[in-house]
Each structure stands twice: as C-alpha cells, then as structure tokens.
Specification:
globular; three-stranded parallel beta sheet; alpha/beta; 106 residues
Length: 106
C-alpha cells in the first residue's frame, strides 16, 4: 500500500525538519513505496484565508488530485520526530504490518 506525503504550510526549519524526516522515510522505504509532494508556499500573500491553518488545509485539499497513493499524510516542515520515536518506526515488527503482509500472501 503506497503512501503520499503532502507538505503544506510555511517553510519553517525546512532544512533540519526534512533531514529529520529522513528517519521516517528510510524506515518506510524498507517495506512500501511512497511519494513526497511539496505544496509549501514561498509567498503566502495570495492565500485564500487570512490565517494560516485554513490555508494549510485548503492547500492540502487542492493537492489531493495529484496524489495517487492509497494513504495520504499531511506534513509540515517544522514537525520533528524525536529519537525515542524511532522504536515506533520499526514497522516490520508491528502487528498491523504483519497482518497486512499475511493478507497480501493469501
């Protein structure tokens, strides 16, 4: 089952954020395909709403026709995964992953 990651919002802490996100992407690449869609805006002066949150949801909604994957996850460049969360990224041992693989083999 493929995953589409859609980045929305302002580009805050982009370099360290995306470097940190490689932890997640490297773990996912071991068992599933995914694509990353960058819908962040460099210039938010033409936004449809006056505050950020509705614009991010609207940008996400407008990006959905581009996304062909079955699972879609909205991301921001300033989301941070702590090292302690790596234990949850060991997806091969997760019961849902094992059940999913069993279904595929039938």
């Amino acid at each position: 089952m493929d995953i589409g990651f859609v980045y929305t919002g302002e580009r805050r802490f982009e370099n360290i954020g995306k470097e940190n996100h490689k932890l997640l992407f490297n773990s996912l690449s071991e068992f599933t395909a995914f694509n990353i869609y960058d819908e962040c805006k460099d210039d938010r002066s033409n936004d449809d709403f006056t505050i950020s949150a509705p614009n991010q949801i609207w940008d996400f909604y407008k990006a959905l026709p581009k996304v062909k994957e079955q699972i879609v996850i909205r991301m921001r460049t300033d989301i941070w995964f702590a090292k302690s969360s790596n234990i949850y990224l060991d997806l091969h041992n997760h019961p849902i992953y094992k059940s999913y693989n069993m279904l595929l083999q039938q």
